[in-house]
Amino acid sequence: MLDLRRLTLICEFARRGSIAATASSLGYSASAVSQQLAALEREAGVALIDRTSRSAELTDAGRRLVEHAERILSLVESAESDLSSHAATPSGRVVVTAFPTAAVAFAPALARSLRRHRELSLRLMQSRSGRGMREVESGEVDIALVDDWWGRVRQHATLTVFPLLNDPLVLAVPRRHRLADPDAAIDPAELRDEAWMATPEGEPSRTAVDRLLADVGGAPPVAWEFEGLGTILSLVAKGTGIAAVPALSLAAGVRGVVVREFPGETIERRIYAVARASSVHRASVAAVLRALHVAAGYLAADLPHLSLAAQ
Amino acid sequence: MLDLRRLTLICEFARRGSIAATASSLGYSASAVSQQLAALEREAGVALIDRTSRSAELTDAGRRLVEHAERILSLVESAESDLSSHAATPSGRVVVTAFPTAAVAFAPALARSLRRHRELSLRLMQSRSGRGMREVESGEVDIALVDDWWGRVRQHATLTVFPLLNDPLVLAVPRRHRLADPDAAIDPAELRDEAWMATPEGEPSRTAVDRLLADVGGAPPVAWEFEGLGTILSLVAKGTGIAAVPALSLAAGVRGVVVREFPGETIERRIYAVARASSVHRASVAAVLRALHVAAGYLAADLPHLSLAAQ
DNA sequence: CCCTGAGCATCAGATCTCCTTATGCCGGGC
DNA sequence: GCCCGGCATAAGGAGATCTGATGCTCAGGG
Fold it and tell me: Which of A86, A182, B91, B281 is the most exposed place for a label (fewest CB within 10 A)?
């Protein structure tokens, strides 16, 4: 069967007049074009190109094939156009990966936003921080939610970055803690005596916590380390200790925790959605990106310490 | 870019209603069809098929693509038809391989016959006996001239065999040899005392010569072995000895040699042209096959010991 | 007349694509 | 509850496609 790419080659050859120019125009090597056109001739069972040592030109049969090919390629382009324009109806599967806090926080709002897209299916996965962008780049996932404490996330040649939320660290205390009183002043010096809980060393949020506590009054020793902010918030609720946590983690709705802002300037991260530049116009991916923006809006409304990130 | 084979698949899927039936109809495994249709969806950027665990059906976008595809494939078929009908004018290159004697013998007549096919180019190669059929089968060459001393060449599932010539062994003697006199009787017993030349042991024609000489009067020792019948005929002309050679080798036109028929029944070979069944209707290959028959006719006219082989 | 550069063919090797086979999941029918 | 058919996916092998290197040819310029 004729091959569309070879038909494209012979049409371009007809325009350009030489194998070398055709190769240059289409981004192949001249030997690739030569071999592909030879294969086309074998398949057609007729000479399509007259070649001499320094030139090549179409035979009569070659010219006739080019006429056919132009019509065929025109129909192919129509088909692709039709698919592309009707793909405004998002459908298919979109794979999103998020660090755990974001997955928990965004999932309900995403589900709510995407409910009306019947043909779209969403797969929400969890990944460890720092890997989301690579997974987008490699095509394993379509969109990644990533966080950035230090301003390192930038626009990328092949990736598009959408800012969603500003997510500051806040102080979480048990309901019966003296600092649960919103009128009680937070004395940084007294904070040093508290039983602090945090995620393990090496986690990005832990580094931010250490930095924050150092800034507000010397780093108190962290008495307990737990993996998972959900776990930590549960323990805060139980009175085990206090913790500095990203505001977003409160989206999980843990009861029995009172949230106070840190005195002075806190440390915050930005939360972004990242997608391949080549797929942001795909209707399904665009729909999920819009839903993420909408979800971010809900979250910012629900959690007073969160704010929408500027575009 | 859309791929014609995948478009063929989705059209067949539209007809058959299931991936399994499509696979069966087109000779693929179901997983191949599944993978190819998934690739088509990725490339189209839109869901084309709704799949459940036990069924699959086209989406609206899939149905629209099938409509486009039917038109595209129809044009492709027109193009292939046009090429195929206009390929009645033989053009392109045909590669023929022949054992050396046949190459030398057929070349002039082939060139004469093909002169009027301006767009056809012929490449005449030489190969060792026994390899020609394999080279045709593998596609390295289009036509092979092969010889058969023992009736082993048969019709083949994918090859078509055309008998061309019956080529007997004849006695070649120097012009001044006593047996050069056509009236001199050839006494087999006296032949034993002659200085015989032949091709090296193991060559098919040598085996035939040994058999012939054994049949006509006991195998005389072959005093000299030379590679190449042309060489042997030159030496016969120079009076070095005598030889039993296939009549076809005389087509080279060596002067100074007199040819006599062997007493009794000689051994002869058949010479065939072999081509792939799938290419014998290709205009260029058909033209060369006709030219080979015509050339065989010339050769049989020129060399009295040769005869045309029955179809 | 000779040299240079451009164009083309071909070969070898690396990479990618396509296919098969095996395996697992799901759901309908018995 | 079990069996069977349909589909997806993974792994591996074979073939296709591409690049880069090399060689040949020839036109044009010095």
Answer: A182
What element of type H or E holds B170?
strand B159-174
**Interface probe with B: pick from A71, A75, A78, most Cβ of B within 10 Å:** A75
Q: Is B92 on the interface with A (CB under 8 A)?
A: yes
Report CB contact under 8 Å: B72, A68. no
pLDDT by 10s per residue, chain A, length 311: 889 999 999 999 998 889 999 998 888 999 999 999 998 988 887 889 888 777 788 888 899 999 999 999 999 988 988 887 766 555 566 778 888 788 778 877 777 667 666 666 677 776 665 677 777 766 667 788 888 887 777 766 667 889 999 999 888 888 888 888 888 887 777 777 777 887 777 777 777 888 777 776 666 666 667 767 777 888 888 887 888 888 888 887 777 888 888 877 788 888 999 887 767 777 778 888 888 888 888 888 888 888 888 86
Domain check: are A205 and A248 in the same one?
yes
B75 touches chain A (CB under 8 A): yes
Calculate the angstrom distance between C1' of C24 and CA of B31: 14
Domain containing residue A62: 4-86
Interface touch A79/B72, C-beta < 8 Å: yes
CATH number of the domain bearing residue A120: 3.40.190.290
